[in-house]
Protein backbone atom coordinates (compact mmCIF):
# COMPACT_ATOMS: atom_id res chain seq x y z
CA UNK A 1 0.00 0.00 0.00
CA UNK A 2 2.82 2.40 0.85
CA UNK A 3 4.10 2.23 -2.74
CA UNK A 4 0.83 3.36 -4.33
CA UNK A 5 0.36 6.85 -2.84
CA UNK A 6 1.07 8.51 -6.20
CA UNK A 7 -1.43 6.22 -7.88
CA UNK A 8 -4.08 7.15 -5.33
CA UNK A 9 -3.32 10.80 -6.13
CA UNK A 10 -3.60 9.89 -9.83
CA UNK A 11 -7.11 8.60 -9.22
CA UNK A 12 -8.09 11.80 -7.38
CA UNK A 13 -6.58 14.09 -10.04
CA UNK A 14 -8.01 11.98 -12.84
CA UNK A 15 -11.48 12.16 -11.30
CA UNK A 16 -11.34 15.97 -11.06
CA UNK A 17 -9.86 16.22 -14.57
CA UNK A 18 -12.60 14.00 -15.99
CA UNK A 19 -15.28 16.09 -14.28
CA UNK A 20 -13.76 19.32 -15.65
CA UNK A 21 -13.59 17.78 -19.12
CA UNK A 22 -17.30 16.98 -18.90
CA UNK A 23 -18.08 20.48 -17.61
CA UNK A 24 -16.14 22.19 -20.42
CA UNK A 25 -17.97 20.07 -22.97
CA UNK A 26 -21.36 21.01 -21.57
CA UNK A 27 -21.09 24.77 -21.15
CA UNK A 28 -21.61 27.14 -24.06
CA UNK A 29 -18.98 29.77 -23.17
CA UNK A 30 -16.14 28.67 -25.44
CA UNK A 31 -15.85 31.86 -27.47
CA UNK A 32 -17.41 35.13 -26.33
CA UNK A 33 -18.38 37.43 -29.18
CA UNK A 34 -18.90 41.18 -28.77
CA UNK A 35 -21.13 42.59 -31.51
CA UNK A 36 -22.04 46.14 -32.53
CA UNK A 37 -25.62 45.55 -33.67
CA UNK A 38 -27.86 45.04 -30.63
CA UNK A 39 -31.16 44.94 -32.51
CA UNK A 40 -31.49 41.20 -31.96
CA UNK A 41 -28.55 40.44 -29.67
CA UNK A 42 -29.74 42.80 -26.95
CA UNK A 43 -26.74 42.57 -24.64
CA UNK A 44 -24.21 42.85 -27.47
CA UNK A 45 -22.63 39.58 -26.32
CA UNK A 46 -23.04 36.10 -27.84
CA UNK A 47 -21.60 32.81 -26.64
CA UNK A 48 -20.26 30.40 -29.22
CA UNK A 49 -20.03 26.87 -27.86
CA UNK A 50 -19.23 23.52 -29.44
CA UNK A 51 -22.87 22.40 -29.50
CA UNK A 52 -24.81 25.65 -29.87
CA UNK A 53 -24.66 29.42 -29.97
CA UNK A 54 -26.58 31.55 -27.45
CA UNK A 55 -27.31 35.21 -26.74
CA UNK A 56 -29.77 37.37 -24.82
CA UNK A 57 -32.60 38.79 -26.90
CA UNK A 58 -35.72 40.79 -26.14
CA UNK A 59 -37.13 40.26 -29.64
CA UNK A 60 -36.95 36.60 -30.69
CA UNK A 61 -38.70 34.76 -27.84
CA UNK A 62 -40.96 37.10 -25.87
CA UNK A 63 -40.93 40.66 -27.23
CA UNK A 64 -40.20 43.09 -24.44
CA UNK A 65 -38.62 40.44 -22.21
CA UNK A 66 -34.92 39.62 -22.29
CA UNK A 67 -34.47 35.86 -22.55
CA UNK A 68 -31.69 33.58 -23.72
CA UNK A 69 -32.01 32.38 -27.29
CA UNK A 70 -29.98 29.33 -28.36
CA UNK A 71 -29.55 27.63 -31.69
CA UNK A 72 -28.09 24.12 -31.82
CA UNK A 73 -25.67 23.29 -34.59
CA UNK A 74 -26.79 20.94 -37.30
CA UNK A 75 -24.52 18.39 -38.89
CA UNK A 76 -25.50 19.87 -42.25
CA UNK A 77 -24.18 23.37 -41.46
CA UNK A 78 -21.04 23.45 -43.61
CA UNK A 79 -20.33 27.00 -42.47
CA UNK A 80 -19.52 25.87 -38.92
CA UNK A 81 -15.70 25.70 -38.63
CA UNK A 82 -13.85 22.43 -38.24
CA UNK A 83 -12.54 23.22 -34.76
CA UNK A 84 -16.09 23.15 -33.40
CA UNK A 85 -17.01 19.78 -34.87
CA UNK A 86 -13.56 18.42 -33.93
CA UNK A 87 -14.14 19.55 -30.36
CA UNK A 88 -17.42 17.64 -30.22
CA UNK A 89 -15.83 14.35 -31.23
CA UNK A 90 -12.58 14.72 -29.30
CA UNK A 91 -14.25 15.70 -26.04
CA UNK A 92 -16.63 12.75 -26.27
CA UNK A 93 -13.62 10.48 -26.81
CA UNK A 94 -11.81 12.16 -23.90
CA UNK A 95 -14.76 11.62 -21.59
CA UNK A 96 -14.92 7.93 -22.53
CA UNK A 97 -11.14 7.43 -22.26
CA UNK A 98 -11.03 9.20 -18.91
CA UNK A 99 -13.77 6.94 -17.61
CA UNK A 100 -11.82 3.86 -18.72
CA UNK A 101 -8.71 5.26 -17.02
CA UNK A 102 -10.62 5.71 -13.77
CA UNK A 103 -11.99 2.17 -13.98
CA UNK A 104 -8.52 0.69 -14.58
CA UNK A 105 -7.03 2.68 -11.70
CA UNK A 106 -9.84 1.67 -9.33
CA UNK A 107 -9.32 -1.99 -10.18
CA UNK A 108 -5.55 -1.77 -9.59
CA UNK A 109 -5.98 0.15 -6.31
CA UNK A 110 -8.56 -2.38 -5.15
CA UNK A 111 -6.03 -5.18 -5.58
CA UNK A 112 -3.34 -3.17 -3.81
CA UNK A 113 -5.47 -2.25 -0.80
CA UNK A 114 -6.94 -5.75 -0.50
CA UNK A 115 -3.44 -7.20 -0.38
CA UNK A 116 -3.68 -9.13 -3.64
CA UNK A 117 -0.02 -9.52 -4.62
CA UNK A 118 -0.51 -10.04 -8.34
CA UNK A 119 2.39 -8.10 -9.86
CA UNK A 120 1.47 -8.41 -13.55
CA UNK A 121 -2.22 -7.65 -13.03
CA UNK A 122 -1.68 -4.58 -10.83
CA UNK A 123 1.16 -3.15 -12.91
CA UNK A 124 -0.65 -3.58 -16.20
CA UNK A 125 -3.85 -1.95 -14.97
CA UNK A 126 -1.93 1.06 -13.66
CA UNK A 127 -0.17 1.31 -17.02
CA UNK A 128 -3.44 1.00 -18.94
CA UNK A 129 -5.05 3.63 -16.71
CA UNK A 130 -2.10 5.96 -17.25
CA UNK A 131 -2.29 5.64 -21.03
CA UNK A 132 -6.03 6.31 -20.97
CA UNK A 133 -5.53 9.43 -18.84
CA UNK A 134 -2.83 10.79 -21.14
CA UNK A 135 -4.84 10.02 -24.27
CA UNK A 136 -7.87 11.75 -22.74
CA UNK A 137 -5.73 14.77 -21.85
CA UNK A 138 -4.44 15.05 -25.41
CA UNK A 139 -7.99 14.79 -26.77
CA UNK A 140 -8.95 17.78 -24.61
CA UNK A 141 -5.79 19.73 -25.45
CA UNK A 142 -6.43 19.75 -29.22
CA UNK A 143 -9.86 21.46 -29.23
CA UNK A 144 -8.95 23.80 -26.38
CA UNK A 145 -5.79 25.06 -28.11
CA UNK A 146 -7.48 25.14 -31.54
CA UNK A 147 -10.40 27.25 -30.33
CA UNK A 148 -8.07 29.48 -28.31
CA UNK A 149 -6.06 30.08 -31.48
CA UNK A 150 -9.29 31.08 -33.27
CA UNK A 151 -10.08 33.53 -30.47
CA UNK A 152 -6.63 35.10 -30.54
CA UNK A 153 -6.91 35.68 -34.29
CA UNK A 154 -10.52 36.91 -34.02
CA UNK A 155 -11.63 34.45 -36.68
CA UNK A 156 -15.14 34.85 -38.08
CA UNK A 157 -17.86 32.25 -38.66
CA UNK A 158 -20.33 32.53 -41.54
CA UNK A 159 -23.42 31.51 -39.57
CA UNK A 160 -26.60 30.75 -41.54
CA UNK A 161 -29.33 33.44 -41.37
CA UNK A 162 -31.43 31.26 -39.04
CA UNK A 163 -28.80 31.70 -36.30
CA UNK A 164 -29.34 35.49 -36.19
CA UNK A 165 -25.59 35.89 -35.72
CA UNK A 166 -23.22 38.28 -37.53
CA UNK A 167 -20.51 36.67 -39.62
CA UNK A 168 -17.77 38.33 -37.59
CA UNK A 169 -17.58 39.91 -34.14
CA UNK A 170 -16.27 43.33 -33.23
CA UNK A 171 -14.04 41.48 -30.79
CA UNK A 172 -13.96 38.12 -29.10
CA UNK A 173 -12.40 36.55 -26.04
CA UNK A 174 -11.95 33.10 -24.56
CA UNK A 175 -14.92 31.91 -22.55
CA UNK A 176 -14.90 29.94 -19.30
CA UNK A 177 -14.75 26.57 -21.09
CA UNK A 178 -11.21 27.14 -22.35
CA UNK A 179 -9.47 27.69 -18.95
CA UNK A 180 -11.55 24.85 -17.50
CA UNK A 181 -10.33 22.65 -20.34
CA UNK A 182 -6.72 23.70 -19.74
CA UNK A 183 -6.97 22.70 -16.07
CA UNK A 184 -8.55 19.38 -17.13
CA UNK A 185 -5.61 18.73 -19.49
CA UNK A 186 -3.06 19.41 -16.74
CA UNK A 187 -4.82 17.14 -14.24
CA UNK A 188 -5.30 14.31 -16.72
CA UNK A 189 -1.66 14.40 -17.85
CA UNK A 190 -0.47 14.49 -14.23
CA UNK A 191 -2.68 11.56 -13.30
CA UNK A 192 -1.40 9.65 -16.31
CA UNK A 193 2.22 10.30 -15.34
CA UNK A 194 1.56 9.20 -11.77
CA UNK A 195 -0.13 5.99 -12.92
CA UNK A 196 2.70 5.14 -15.29
CA UNK A 197 5.29 5.66 -12.56
CA UNK A 198 4.04 2.72 -10.48
CA UNK A 199 6.66 0.11 -9.58
CA UNK A 200 5.68 -3.10 -7.88
CA UNK A 201 7.67 -3.50 -4.63
CA UNK A 202 10.46 -6.05 -4.60
CA UNK A 203 9.65 -8.73 -2.06
CA UNK A 204 12.69 -10.36 -0.51
CA UNK A 205 12.57 -13.52 1.51
CA UNK A 206 14.75 -13.42 4.59
CA UNK A 207 15.96 -16.59 6.19
CA UNK A 208 16.35 -16.48 9.96
CA UNK A 209 18.59 -18.88 11.80
From TrEMBL:
Gene3D superfamilies membership: 1.20.140.150
Subcellular locations according to the entry: Cell junction, Tight junction; Cell membrane
GO molecular function, one term: structural molecule activity
Sorted UniProt keywords: Cell junction, Cell membrane, Membrane, Tight junction, Transmembrane, Transmembrane helix
Thylakoid found in the keyword field: no
Gene Ontology annotations for the cellular component aspect, listed alphabetically: bicellular tight junction; plasma membrane
One Pfam family linked to the record: Claudin_2
Membrane topology: Multi-pass membrane protein
Chain segments annotated as transmembrane: 6-28, 40-65, 85-109, 121-149, 169-190
Broad class of the protein's primary localization: other
Highest rank taxon of the organism: Eukaryota
Annotated family: Belongs to the claudin family.
Name of the protein in question: CLD34 protein
Annotated source species: Corythaixoides concolor
Record lineage: Eukaryota, Metazoa, Chordata, Craniata, Vertebrata
Gene that this polypeptide is encoded by: Cldn34
